[in-house]
């Protein structure tokens, strides 16, 4: 199994996480932000990943440190679980409809971190999660995991649907990209 355990402790957050790339779609634990927990559960279910999380953050300040640091740790765990990135599809793309919303994600597990993110929200927050932090979460994850990540809301009205469409599109694209193919690294260079 492609599994990684990461612990990261700062003055703002204390996170212990286990990521199983070949899981059953189970999310255990809480980050302390209800809507983000809902999104992580969707990520696990739709990607067939297992995540065990133990986390404390300075939520009395706001959700910023917890959301960004969780993205960092998830990215670190994904990079460690995939190691040399050999024998996987490497690329994944998904469009996910969520009622009136259509979300898009395309990614490359390339070792070259980049984020293109296009999504606008009507409200400042969804529950206790500031909408501006969704981009920061994915930026932190992509940069730690070494993923080139493109995400976009093509259209939609409801902020909950927009965020959920992006998380589910990411889950499906990542699930495809980490699918084992056998063989070496998918690159004309022979390495990533």
TrEMBL record:
The keyword Cytoplasm applies. It comes from the Bacteria. Keywords: Amino-acid biosynthesis, Cytoplasm, Histidine biosynthesis, Lyase. Its EC number is 4.2.1.19. Its main location: cytoplasm. CDD domains: IGPD. Pathway: Amino-acid biosynthesis; L-histidine biosynthesis; L-histidine from 5-phospho-alpha-D-ribose 1-diphosphate: step 6/9. PROSITE patterns: IGP_DEHYDRATASE_1 (PS00954), IGP_DEHYDRATASE_2 (PS00955). It is found in: Cytoplasm. It holds the Pfam family IGPD. It catalyses: D-erythro-1-(imidazol-4-yl)glycerol 3-phosphate = 3-(imidazol-4-yl)-2-oxopropyl phosphate + H2O. InterPro entries: IGPD_sf, ImidazoleglycerolP_deHydtase, ImidazoleglycerP_deHydtase_CS, Ribosomal_Su5_D2-typ_SF. HAMAP family: HisB. Belongs to the imidazoleglycerol-phosphate dehydratase family. This is Imidazoleglycerol-phosphate dehydratase. It comes from Blautia hansenii (Ruminococcus hansenii). The lineage of its organism: Bacteria, Bacillati, Bacillota, Clostridia, Lachnospirales.
């Amino acid at each position: 199994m492609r599994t990684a355990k990461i612990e990261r402790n700062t003055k703002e957050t204390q996170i212990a996480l286990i990521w199983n790339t070949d899981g059953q779609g189970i999310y255990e634990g809480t980050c302390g932000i209800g809507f983000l927990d809902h999104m992580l559960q969707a990520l696990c279910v739709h990607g067939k990943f297992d995540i065990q999380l133990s986390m404390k953050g300075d939520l009395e300040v706001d959700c910023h440190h917890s959301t960004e640091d969780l993205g960092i740790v998830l990215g670190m765990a994904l990079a460690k679980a995939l190691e040399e990135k050999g024998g996987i599809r490497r690329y994944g793309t998904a469009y996910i409809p969520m009622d009136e919303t259509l979300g898009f994600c395309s990614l490359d597990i390339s070792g070259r971190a980049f984020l293109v993110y296009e999504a606008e929200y009507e409200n400042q927050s969804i529950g206790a999660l500031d909408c501006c932090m969704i981009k920061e979460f994915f930026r932190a994850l992509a940069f730690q995991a070494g993923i080139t990540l493109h995400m976009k809301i093509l259209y939609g009205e409801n902020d909950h649907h927009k965020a959920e469409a992006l998380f589910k599109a990411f889950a499906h694209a990542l699930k495809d990209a980490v699918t084992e193919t056998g063989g070496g690294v998918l690159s004309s260079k022979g390495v990533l």
